[in-house]
Amino acid sequence: MFPRPLTPLAAPNGAEPLGRALRRAPLGRARAGMGGPPLLLPSMLMFAVIVASSGLLLMIERGILAEMKPLPLHPPNREGAAWRRALPRPGGLSLEAGDPDLQVRQDVRNRTLRAVCGQPGMPRDPWDLPVGQRRTLLRHILVSDRYRFLYCYVPKVACSNWKRVLKVLAGVLDNVDVRLKMDHRNDLVFLADLRPEEIRYRLQHYFKFLFVRNPLERLLSAYRNKFGEIREYQQRYGAEIVRRYRAGAGPSPAGDDVTFPEFLRYLVDEDPERMNEHWMPVYHLCQPCAVHYDFVGSYERLEADANQVLEWVRAPPHIRFPARQAWYRPASPESLHYHLCSAPRALLQDVLPKYILDFSLFAYPLPNVTREACHQ
User: Rounded distance, CA 367 to CA 352, Å?
Assistant: First the structure.
């Protein structure tokens, strides 16, 4: 058994608790003085270092599983006693025995979530959140009453395919391979559509999951898709970004040629709680301290993790997560490395604090953009 989290996780004497400090952290470019260097929220960065160290230890001593919650209650009329006998034994979800990488990753994430979310001032329940944060959360959690699960969708982490799966499970679509433009609102039920007592019941009894992705890879994917392909985003966001950050842009830029550094500058000046959902941090979208998720899947092993979830919720065996389309080209680690190395390092230092909880909570490494790494 691993020891409890290191004591530096706690706030030093006289310092603010982590949760309160995060809420009060200045937005945009916080400066120690008028001309001083950027302030990188020391408590958050200290925590990132601790998480990186503990993650390394877990990789060395792999195989130790965190305690996981038992499966939630399911409808009594699904398949009778035979279905109930097929459930895993009480004591937790059974991860694939032959996949130690999955076991280690879930263990790191479970332990990190418990360590961070146990800090003073962190929310324990959606009703601990300010109204705006709670509204964002409830609008991003999809409900399946038939299969008794809740899914917090994160844009640019295969959420369109998950919505397609939910519509098949609800009988709205015949199969996941139906070729049509995804309607992201109709025929879907969100927690925000329900009454408070209905929300509380589902949060207590339903299986809850989300899927995450390397934070910077997700940003690059959003940048390439929204500013390279979607005219609405070019006009609404791209034109404003060019006006703000490009000298001599003129009053009416098209917004279809936003550079990645310009996009990063825009993110530095944005309040994370008011960002567009495609680049809002996962922490603000899904509030993993206020909602106790049973499983956190990875984009990096999307199909395997997604099909594991479908087994856990007892989806019909013929329903499988859609395979990635042959034409789709996701943002690759090589492409991300190129874009990060092409951006000013000071700009990256200003962007990273906005997403530091996504890195640390979900066990993603901070990027290596040293000169040596960028010249390899």
Answer: 9
The CB density around residue 258, as the number of other CB atoms within 10 Å, is 25
Enclosing domain of residue 241: 216-276+331-373
The helix/strand count (H/E) of the chain reads as 17, 4
| 140-181 residue pLDDT tens | 999 999 999 999 999 999 999 999 999 999 998 988 887 766
Tell me if 2 is assigned to some domain.
no
User: Is residue 330 within 8 Å of 213, Cβ to Cβ?
Assistant: no
β partners of residue 207: 149
**Contact status, residue 242 vs residue 255, Cβ threshold 8 Å:** yes
- φ/ψ region of 330 (left if φ > 0, alpha if ψ in -120 to 50, else beta) reads beta
Other CB atoms within a 10 A radius of the CB of residue 29 amount to: 13
Residue 97 falls inside a structural domain: no
The partner residues of 141 in beta bridges, in order of sequence, read: 152
Structural domain includes residue 149 = no
Residue 217 in this model has a pLDDT that exceeds 60: yes
pTM: 0.76
Which pair of structure tokens corresponds to residue 303? 């199909």
Cα dihedral 168, 171, 175, 181 in deg (nearest 10): -70
